[in-house]
Amino acid sequence: MIKPTLLCSALVTALGLGSFAHADVKLGFIGGFTGPIESLAPPIFSGAQLAVQQINQQGGILNGQTLTLLSADTTCTDASAAINAADRMINTEKVTAIVGALCSGATIAAANNVAVPAGVVMVSPASTSPAIAEINDNDLVFRTTPSDSYQGEVLANLLLSKGINEIVVTFVNNDYGQGLSNAFSSVFEAGGGSIAANLAHEDGKADYRSELGSLASSGVDTLLVLAYADTSGETILRQAYESGNFTQYIGADGMVGDRLVGAVGADVLEGMIATRPGKPDIPGSELFSEAAAAAGFDPNSVFASQAYDAAFLLALAIEKNGSADREGLSAALRSVALPPGEVILPGEWEKAVELLKAGQDINYEGAAGSQDFDERGNVPGIIEEMVVRDGAFTTVGLIE
Questions:
Q1: What residues does 97 pair with on adjacent strands?
Q2: Where is the Leucine-binding protein domain positioned along the sequence (predicted)?
Q3: pLDDT computed for residue 400 by the predictor
Q4: What is the DSSP string of 335-358?
Q5: CB 158 within 8 A of CB 174
């Protein structure tokens, strides 16, 4: 006869094991929900949420478990906040992997201090600094957006092709701004362009008139601002216009947001040129755009498609790995992202699961591109040329 205490113990153990077996599989999302990209973050998060929603609607992950996406705020610019966000996701919430961070400095801080020591894969949809590729990461840090080494080159050549040969530059004094400024400057000057002044600025100040005065003293009226739309970028553009010293404004991905146009003035920024990582004209991009529109967010939002790809790829890697364990996930991620294998497009979760269960290889071709990671976790990507027209950033063309 089984004693009641032993019976209760056995039941508790069985229930506990059953609960564990059907526990949610967790992904973390760390991003700048407050701070200088506050207006850009929500659709990026929506991109990742869309991938998770589709997966759960198509039977879930690892034999029917639910995939969940937990989030934490890095503030974008506060390294300690980024470290705390990663620590909560990894050590408290016990996520398998992380989508994020968004801002480059946040990704570097989170990776070096938490994720890499814990053996956790991170896939950033928005960290573009060349410094990301220099992290001693044990093949744990990836990104689904191209490096600013490429965006800077594209922006420089774009301006030169338009006959814009002389400019002044101000960049936010962090990993993102410095990396993009360096990449841009070397190509622009090598191509015959002249940078009359190139000044770093600190984010979050209320007054940049001193910096703008130094830039304006060169007599050049074309201003390139490499900063964030919600903080220094907005303030600098507004004060630059008020100074009357500049007539042409240029930016990069951190400046591309219609909130910026509304805050500074559509008439002020009409004709502003910018670049950002974009979506190529491929089947995956179209599928994502349709699903995003149905989900209620703008599929053309900066980094939204890259966030979708990051979340979908991590889920595919977990499925390939056969468990929610962190060990082996990096190799599994490369396996599902790179050829050879049956092509998997955005939304084709059921198809992917069936192929993986049959022991076949898959090759994810994403919403933002092929996502073929190189040895440093970078992807080639594509750059969009943007121009402000009629109060909004409008895509002019794609540059590969």
A1: 27, 121
A2: 25-337
A3: 80
A4: HHHSSSSEEE-TT-HHHHHHHHHT
A5: no
CATH number of domain containing 254 = 3.40.50.2300
Interatomic CA distance for residues 130 and 92, integer angstroms: 30
**Residue 158 · residue 387 · CB < 8 Å:** no
> 339 phi and psi, to 5 degrees?
-70, 160
Phi, then psi, of 399 in degrees rounded to 5: -120, 120
Are 119 and 240 in the same domain?
no
Give how many domains the chain has, as a whole number.
Answer: 2
Question: What is the Cβ-side half-sphere exposure of residue 275, based on CA atoms within 13 angstroms?
Answer: 25
3-state secondary structure at position 277: strand
Tokens 């979760």, residue located:
349
**Residue keyed to tokens 């890259």:** 306
pLDDT in tens, 270-288: 999 999 998 888 999 999 9
Q: Which residues span the domain enclosing 103? A: 24-147+281-364
Same domain, yes or no: 189 and 215: yes
Q: Are residues 142 and 165 in the same domain?
A: no
Is the distance from CB of 253 to CB of 284 less than 8 angstroms? no
pLDDT band at 295 (very low <50, low <70, confident <90, very high): very high
Angle at 20 between CA 14 and CA 22, to 5 degrees: 105
Residue 263, phi then psi, degrees to nearest 5: -75, -40
Split at pLDDT 50, 70, 90, the class of 17 is: very low
Helix axes 283-295, 41-57, angle to 10 degrees: 100
Strands ordered across the beta sheet of 392-399: 194-201, 166-172, 222-226, 248-251, 273-277, 383-389, 392-399
pTM: 0.91
- Domain check: are 251 and 387 in the same one? yes
Per-residue pLDDT reduced to its tens digit, 147-158: 999 999 999 999
Cα distance between residue 109 and residue 81, in whole Å: 9
d(CA 382, CA 132): 18
- Are the beta carbons of 90 and 140 closer than 8 angstroms? no
3-state secondary structure of 87: helix
